[in-house]
Amino acid sequence: MSAHGDPIPMTARGGHALTGTADVPGDKSISHRSLILGAMAVGETRVSGLLEGQDVLDTGRAMAALGAEVIRHGPGDWSVHGVGVGGFAEPEQVIDCGNSGTGVRLIMGAVATHDMAVTFTGDASLNGRPMGRVTDPLSLFGARAVGRAGGRLPLTLVGAAEPVPVRYATPVASAQVKSAVLLAGLNAPGRTVVVEREATRDHSERMLAGFGAEIETRRTDEGFEITLTGRPELRPQTIAVPRDPSSAAFPVCAALITEGSDVLVPNIGLNPTRAGLFDTLVEMGADLAFENRREEGGEPVADMRARFSPDMKGIRVPSERAASMIDEYPVLSVVAANAAGVTEMPGVAELRVKESDRIDAMAQGLRANGVEVEDGPDWWQVTGRGPGGVPGGATVAARLDHRIAMSFLCLGMAAKAPVTVDDAQPIATSFPIFEDLMKALGAEIVRGNG
Ligand SMILES: O=C(O)C1=C[C@@H](OP(=O)(O)O)[C@@H](O)[C@H](O)C1
Ligand SMILES: C=C(OP(=O)(O)O)C(=O)O
Q: Which residues make up the binding site for phosphoenolpyruvate (predicted)?
């Protein structure tokens, strides 16, 4: 659901070391998928560590509207009584996915091979994002979409009465597109194949296999070819959601740039399709240690320790790494602003179609705080001012984008003068305990204009 009420400005002020343990919430991508696949299994799936951010809550509500029974037993502890593949019922109301691209695109995929019509909407951010990238491949299954200009939400999807399986090569590196096609393929007879040139996060594939679907990934000359056999009976699972590396990125990056900091972030999911930020930080010279590497619930995890790193240097981030850290570029640019030299970030056009145009949002806000940024259609670069060298002092627009809001608050923790974001409400979509968690580490964050 869309954020309501007046904006909540928030200000971060520097001069405080961050120390202690940061227990970040569950992984957003895996949380969405637990609810959706749980709803498509026969019987009760039990989920612990579910992220209770607004994006995921909206997906839970959508699953209930489609006929699944979704119950909260306690903090992060949920069950989903699924209706089986092909068993969704036509919802009586519009499905409001709020701020969530993952929610709306995956659910569109899941309903596209059902003989029914579903209308989707979201907040002002989501209603501005491109949906043709999902409705195009869904039309190959036999679904039809009618939306606003450019295929935007609100949009009605009329699912295929007699779906056929599909072979689809994704034109953009997007796990949401890949996952939408795979979820549609679940209720199409025969084999649905998705080919992606670059590997994107593979949580859907891992989880589909865990629920008992026949799914296999092969490397071919075209890239990664994923083949799913349709109409499986999905077996309900017990899922322990690992903690979100994209949320861990905030306390980790804030610690790296704030003098005297030493923060432990336990149990972080380190799936290689998600871990690009940490490779990049290590290459820049970050003091980052990974302890207790292990596997939990089919996903690699480790405890991460981040210490103040005054000797970080700018690098050119390889564009092949972009998909594995796509949500982390905003906070990387904050680290880059506190490193020595230039950090170049090529091959990132996708950043322009997230909750906001993230290149523009960060470039404008960084410039307002005294940092030099250059950008083009699919690249940007930040000239670092060295440790503690960012002047700060400006108020920036969060643009309904949680990652922009959190990134600028991290900037303020290391800047010479406070940094204010005009509205911190979107943070609740992915990291509802951000403010409390950062304050517990020692950060000075206040509501208001500081
Ligand atoms: O599949 C997912 O869970 C996600 C995929 C990514 O989006 P794209 O598929 O648009 O790259 C990412 O930005 C988003 O936060 C979560
Ligand atoms: C891009 C993001 O999410 P979504 O696409 O699900 O809105 C994100 O969380 O950074």
A: 28, 101, 129, 176, 358, 403
Residue tagged 């994107």 (tokens): 200
The alpha helices in 141-187, defined as continuous H runs, are 175-185
CATH topology of domain 10-26+242-447: UDP-n-acetylglucosamine1-carboxyvinyl-transferase; Chain (3.65.10)
- Say what the pLDDT of residue 3 is: 55
CB of 174 closer than 6 A to ligand 1?
yes
ipTM: 0.99
Which CATH number does 28-230 carry? Answer: 3.65.10.10
**CA 60 – CA 317 distance, rounded (Å):** 36
- Nearest alpha carbon, ligand 1 atom 12: 327
The CB of 187 under 6 Å from ligand 2? The reply is no
Atom 15 (ligand 1): residue with closest C-alpha?
327
Q: Indicate which atom in ligand 2 lies nearest the CA of residue 403.
A: 10
Beta carbons of 447 and 405 less than 8 angstroms apart:
no
What are residue 70's DSSP bridge partners? 80
Residue 237: DSSP 8-state: -
Strands (E), 100-151: 117-121, 144-148
Whether the full predicted model's pTM is greater than 0.95, yes or no, is yes
Hey, which of 1, 24, 27, 28 would you mutate to test ligand 2's pocket, going by the most ligand atoms within 8 Å of its Cβ? 28
For ligand 2, is residue 327 a contact (CB within 6 Å)? yes
Give the residue range(s) of CATH 3.65.10.10 domains in the chain.
10-26+242-447, 28-230
Ligand number nearest to the C-alpha of 350: 1
* Helices and strands (DSSP H and E) totals, the chain: 12, 23
Res 1: pLDDT: 58
Name residue 327's amino acid.
D
CB crowding 394-406: b at 16 or more within 10 Å, else e: bbbbbbbbbbbbb
pLDDT over 90 for what percent of the chain? 97
- Active-site amino acid positions: 327
pLDDT at 4 over 70: no
Ligand 1 contact, 176 CB (< 6 A)? yes
